[in-house]
Structure formats: C-alpha cells, structure tokens
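Input record (one chain):
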Amino acid sequence: MAASPSRQQIDGASHLRGSDNVQRHPTALSPSVADLPRQIRLAASRIRPHIIETPLHLSPALSERTGAQVFLKLENRQHTGSFKLRGATNKLLNLPAEDRARGVVTASTGNHALAVARAAAQLDIAATIYLPVGASPRKVEKLESFPVTLCRVPGDALNAEISARAAALQTHQPFISPYNDPHIIAGQGTIAVELLRRQPQLDAVFVTVGGGGLMGGIASHIKDTGSQIQTVGCQPQNSAVMLASVRAGRIIDTASLPTLSDGSAGGIEPHAVTFSLCQNHVDHWLTVSEDEIAAAMRLVYRESGESIEGAAGVAVASLLKTGKRFAGQRLAVVICGGNVDSDTWQRVLEQKN
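The corresponding structure, as predicted from the sequence alone:
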C-alpha cells in the first residue's frame, strides 16, 4: 500500500483535478468542541444498542476506476436510512429528565427529522419538527408514520432552523440542532470509530458536507488519533456554503441553487460550532456538478443495487473527480443516506451517462 499523500500534494490543484483550494485560517475551538474526541468515544458506547454498525463494503467499480481500494461506509442501511440517527440518539440520551418531559423541537430537510422522530419515539419523548416546504416527499411520508408534530416552513433548511429555534424559546423546549451541537457532532463522529476499527490503514475519507456535523465528527476523531488520513470535504456546486465560508474565514450567507443533494443544501446557522471544525480539520475540498452527482448515484446502483440519495452521490462523485490521484491507496467514501423520493430517483435513472 502506498504511503499517504502529504497535505501539500493533495492541496495542489495540479495534483487533484477539479479541486477547490483553500488557504487555511485556523481558529480556536470552543471548550465543548475541543472535548469532542472524548465525547465521540463515549457516544460510540452509549448509542450502540440503538443503531446499526453499518457495513463497510469494497466497491469493485470505484476501485477499478480509481486504481485504489475504495470502501463504501453504507449509512444508507442505518435505521431511518441515514447517519443522522447517530447524532439524534446521542443528543436525546444526554438530555436531563426535565427536558425530556417538556418534549423537543427540531428542524430538518428530512433525515435529521426522521432520526429525531425515531429516537424520540423509542425514548417516549414528544417531538415537534419544522421542515422546508420543499423537503423530499419520501422523507415527509416516513415522518408521518411517527407520533410527531410537523410544521412546514417556506424557504430552505436555514429558515426552518430559525423558525424552530424561535418556537423552542417560546415553549421552553430543547432545540435539537441538525449539526450545531457537540452531542450531535459526537454521535456522527462514531462513524469514524467504526471506520478505523475496520480499516485502520485508510489514506483518505470522502465526506459530504452540509452544516458540517458529519465531517466535524469524523475529522475530529481521525485527527485525534494522530493518523495521516486525509479528510476530503465534498459539496455540490449548487450549494457549497461551507466551502464559501471557509474561504471567507467566517460564516457567510450565500445563495443556493436547487440540487440533488437536498440533505446538504442551504445555509449555515450563525456561530455554528461546526465551522471551526471544518476550517481546522478538513484537508481538502471538492465540488461537483448536478450531472456528476446523478452519474455517481447511477453507478453505485448499477454496481451494487444500493439506492443512494443525492448527498451520498456528492461524495462518490468527488472521488471520481480526482481521477487516479489516489491509485494504489486505501480510501473510504461515506454513503451518508439513501432516502431519495421516487420521482427524483426515476429522473436520475433515466438520464444518460
């Protein structure tokens, strides 16, 4: 197995085709975020009875195309169909009894909502969920199968978050952030614990970034181990808000266009703790087009029969965009979810490569 590439090699545009290079401006981590590695280890034990330790499968098609050994971490097989159950479960298990009794409020484009709905039902906690009017119909249909209150909000995921936070303040209920909470991030970081247990000699991990909770948790655990594993943040070109913010050195509000990656789309909450994690711990960034996302979704389906959502397609497409840069190395791609509505999936399948 070839040695891990250096950060200088990966960050150079001449070495990684289609890359978005960012000059680092590291910021200090808040005390709660600085404690994340320990919290991730605790979360791994805490949530184990409530989640699936998802498979890590070698992908022959992606391995052949890149010349690397490519493993897919199949979070689409998680309960509720995405990684979000990890963070939501960890958060609810950490709530004091009096907060559980009041019930919780959250906001989501769908996957976090499904996770909170399932975890709340298992723990007998009432839940009110705010979501954008454009949320995936398949996810909404699933939500309606849980004993939760749904509130639809115009605009994107950020608008839903703002509305939900305001409601939580009025009712004195805990707000369960999709990403801006150390307990949520720690739960998502348990994916890295499983990855390194199965494949400790990985050279790079490709992770789709929306609000940054998934990448923040994974990257925090990886960096804490002292390994040389590279973390590659992947975003759709139509909604690369975290990348734009990292480039600017602060969280900024940029317009998002429609994208297949609805699970990662939209703005970032002001003062989100995930920003410093992405700023400090992501080694490289890639963005991909809508056509590239759709092609990646089709490839995974035709190779393995796995139906993956657009957000997962972003990470696969980003890997494919690097060409053979990682030939001879061992890579992991986090397949973050599989909740794609039937109409969108049909359009993706009908497109030509």
